[in-house]
Structure formats: structure tokens, C-alpha cells
């Protein structure tokens, strides 16, 4: 009997050790583009500066409390059947001490926490701030740069990839077209919920160029894990060039096969600014400068002809989701395009720079 108990407790120790090791090993990824512990942007850095001291204070409290508990359990354990400890009731000095100490500690932590909350929430002001209206969709992101307009008065629109210049604040006004999402670029900023019928705000900035990955951080059904995003930070002159390019109209396809399919199907949901027949519809991503992006479909796929072809052949086949036309459908259905149509559309879309 005693032997089997010992074996059982040995096995419990072994399993808990293995599970702890598995969790620890999961944190050892060498390529971790979404590592919040290596912040780059000022907001992420400020949050990290708060997190680290609070974490070590929590570690100290944990070690002291659990260590004391284990020590007391061992020191005052019952050693024999007639070994009852001294019976006492209350200790005023101790009780005052363990009430005041944690209260003082929490009050001390509250000061930097409250300062950080207000700093992070403060709206950036000045003519240098870039304003972007963000809309979450199942499962992609729409950006409208309200500061930049075409001569016809249409705002600059793009999808999934937020292009920004170094050194300027970007202020996102966010809402959702369907369910609750959450916008999170771990190296630049904290996460913020994106909620239907409500506007939430998030600011971010990076002083160095680079590509920063992020993703939806609120479960939003089938392709939640495929609702990714990129923030592409460029030098100011490159950004200005990007803006100028995005504001130009797109050319219509020269191939009549592509034009016919755009008119018959695509323009019902997508906009390609400047192409006759495009109505400005934004049920799906704006495709005006589709080929200038590095990824598509919620940044799930790299922008390659093969990936675009696979997508056009069967969208729900390569990205799980309910197609429009079915109850609750939100994503592009399979239109059973012919190979000639797929080839024509791929050739056109990849060159929409
Ligand atoms: Cu959108 Cu999860």
C-alpha cells in the first residue's frame, strides 16, 4: 500500500515537472516576431518598463509567501498522535503588519500603473499625427487614412498592412463590421478591442524602419488565427512616395476575360479605384493597389502568383470560413472560376502596384 502511494506521488512529481518544462520550452522560439518582451515602439517600451518591475515584485512576494508556507508546514507538522500544537487565537501585531505591508506595496505599484494608463491613452496631437480609421472584419483589417485624399475626394484605403513612416504617431480609430476583434502589434503597442457600434482608440509609433507582425487577439470564430496583420514602417520619404502611389487610380485590365469577371462578380464586394464599373464597394478589401502589398487575405498568404491563384480557385478551401451566401457567411465564396479566368485575374492583380 505504502509502495503504491510513493509510486503515485513520484509519478505526479514527474508529470508536473514535464508539463512545466513543456511550458518553459515553448518560450524558447528563436524566431518570435510577436515577442512582446522585446518592444520597439515607445508605447510597447513604456508598457514593458511597467511590466518588468511589477513582475519581479510579484516574484518576490510569491517566493516569500510560498516559502514561508512550506517552511511553516514542515516546521510545525504533526509529528505523532499526541503531538498537538499550542492553541492560540489572534496576534494583533502580525495582523496589522500583514494588512499594512501589502496595502503599501499595492499603493506603490498603483502610482506607475496609473501614470502609464493615462500616458498610453492620451491622444497624440499636432499636424504630424497620422489618423487612420480601422475596421475589423471576419477575417481581415481595413484601413482608411483620413488625412490623405485623391483629387476626387476619396480617402486612401488599404487592407491588412498598415504602412507608416518612422517617428510619427499614428492614431487608430477602430470599430468592427461584425464581431469583437482585438488589434495587437506586440512590438509596437498594447492590444485594444475592436468592437461593433463603438469606437476604440490605439496609438502606435516606431522610430526605426521594419516590418512588425501582429494579429487579432480576440477569438472571432473560424479563422481567428488567420486574422493577421503587418505594420510596415518606412523612412518618411518612402512613406510619402507610398502615399502618392496609393492615391493614383488603377488601370483597368487589358485582358477582356479579367474585365468581364471583375464586372460580373468582383465589383459587388471589392473596389478598384479608377476602373470603370467599380462602385467603391467595401464588403471585401479594397484592391486598388493590391499588388503593392506583401500579403493578402488577413496577411495569411504572401503575395505570390501561386497563392493568389490558389485563393481564387477556392477561398474557403485555403482559409476556413463561412462563405457569403450561406447563413452567417462573411468570406469570399468559391466562384468556380475557369483556369483562363484565374490566370487572367492573377496577371492583373499582381501588377496592381
Ligand atoms: Cu478577429 Cu480574432
Q: What's the helix and strand layout?
A:
Layout lengths: L1 H25 L15 H34 L16 H30 L8 E8 L2 E10 L5 E5 L1 E5 L4 E7 L4 E3 L8 E3 L5 E5 L5 E6 L12 E7 L1 H11 L9 H9 L30 E2 L4 E2 L2 H9 L1 H4 L20 H12 L3
Parallel strand pairs: 1-5, 4-10
Antiparallel strand pairs: 1-2, 2-3, 5-8, 6-7, 9-10, 11-12
Helix pairs in contact: 2-3, 5-8, 6-8
Bound molecules: dinuclear copper ion.
What labels describe this entry?
alpha+beta; 5-stranded mixed sheet; 3-stranded mixed sheet; Immunoglobulin-like; 353 residues; 38% helix; 12 strands; binds dinuclear copper ion; 8 helices; single chain
Structural features, described:
Helix content is 38%, strand content 18%. The chain is an alpha+beta fold. It has a domain at 256-349: Immunoglobulin-like (Sandwich). 27% of the residues are buried. Dinuclear copper ion (CUA) is lined by residues 136, 139, 181, 216, 218-220, 224, 227.
Helix fraction, binned, reads 25-40%
Ions, cofactors and other ligands present here are:
dinuclear copper ion
Which architecture of the domain at 256-349 does the CATH hierarchy give at level 2? Answer: Sandwich
Average pLDDT metric:
94
Strand content: 15-25%
Shape: elongated
Which sequence of strands runs across the widest sheet? 3-2-1-5-8
CATH class of the domain at 256-349: Mainly Beta
* CA distance, first residue to last residue: 75 Å
Query: SSE string, helix = H, strand = E?
Result: HHHEEEEEEEEEEHHEEHHH
Number of DSSP E strands: 12
Q: What is the fold-level CATH name, i.e. the topology of the domain at 256-349?
A: Immunoglobulin-like
Total helical elements? 8
Going by CATH, the homologous superfamily of the domain at 256-349 would be Cupredoxins -  blue copper proteins
Low-confidence stretches: none
Amino acid at each position: 500500500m505504502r509502495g503504491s502511494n510513493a509510486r503515485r506521488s513520484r509519478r505526479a512529481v514527474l508529470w508536473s515537472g514535464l508539463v512545466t518544462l513543456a511550458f518553459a520550452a515553448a518560450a524558447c522560439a528563436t524566431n518570435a516576431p510577436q515577442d512582446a518582451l522585446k518592444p520597439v515602439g515607445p508605447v510597447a517600451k513604456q508598457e514593458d518598463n511597467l511590466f518588468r518591475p511589477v513582475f519581479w515584485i510579484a516574484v518576490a512576494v510569491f517566493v516569500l509567501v510560498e516559502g514561508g508556507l512550506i517552511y511553516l508546514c514542515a516546521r510545525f507538522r504533526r509529528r505523532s498522535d499526541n503531538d498537538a500544537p499550542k492553541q492560540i487565537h489572534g496576534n494583533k501585531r502580525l495582523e496589522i503588519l500583514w494588512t499594512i505591508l501589502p496595502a503599501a506595496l499595492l499603493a506603490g505599484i498603483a502610482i506607475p500603473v496609473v501614470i502609464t494608463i493615462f500616458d498610453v491613452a492620451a491622444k497624440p496631437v499636432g499636424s504630424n499625427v497620422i489618423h487612420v480609421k480601422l475596421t475589423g472584419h471576419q477575417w481581415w483589417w481595413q484601413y482608411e487614412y483620413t488625412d490623405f485624399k485623391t483629387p476626387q475626394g476619396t480617402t486612401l484605403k488599404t487592407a491588412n498592412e498598415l504602412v507608416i513612416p518612422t517617428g510619427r504617431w499614428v492614431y487608430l480609430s477602430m470599430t468592427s463590421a461584425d464581431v469583437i476583434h482585438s488589434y495587437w502589434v506586440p512590438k509596437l503597442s498594447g492590444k485594444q478591442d475592436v468592437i461593433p457600434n463603438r469606437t476604440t482608440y490605439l496609438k502606435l509609433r516606431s522610430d526605426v524602419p521594419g516590418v512588425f507582425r501582429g494579429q487579432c487577439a480576440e477569438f472571432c470564430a473560424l479563422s481567428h488565427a488567420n486574422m493577421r496583420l503587418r505594420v510596415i514602417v518606412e523612412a518618411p520619404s518612402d512613406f510619402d512616395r507610398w502615399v502618392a502611389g496609393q492615391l493614383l487610380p488603377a488601370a483597368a485590365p487589358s485582358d477582356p476575360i479579367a474585365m468581364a469577371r471583375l464586372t460580373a462578380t468582383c465589383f459587388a464586394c471589392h473596389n478598384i479605384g479608377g476602373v470603370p464599373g467599380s462602385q467603391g464597394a467595401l464588403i471585401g478589401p479594397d484592391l486598388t493597389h493590391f499588388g503593392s502589398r506583401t500579403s493578402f487575405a488577413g496577411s495569411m498568404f504572401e503575395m505570390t502568383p501561386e497563392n493568389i491563384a490558389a485563393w481564387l480557385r477556392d477561398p474557403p478551401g485555403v482559409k476556413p470560413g463561412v462563405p457569403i451566401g450561406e447563413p452567417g457567411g462573411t468570406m469570399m465564396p468559391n466562384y468556380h472560376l475557369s483556369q483562363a479566368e484565374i490566370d487572367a485575374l492573377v496577371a492583373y492583380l499582381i501588377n496592381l502596384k
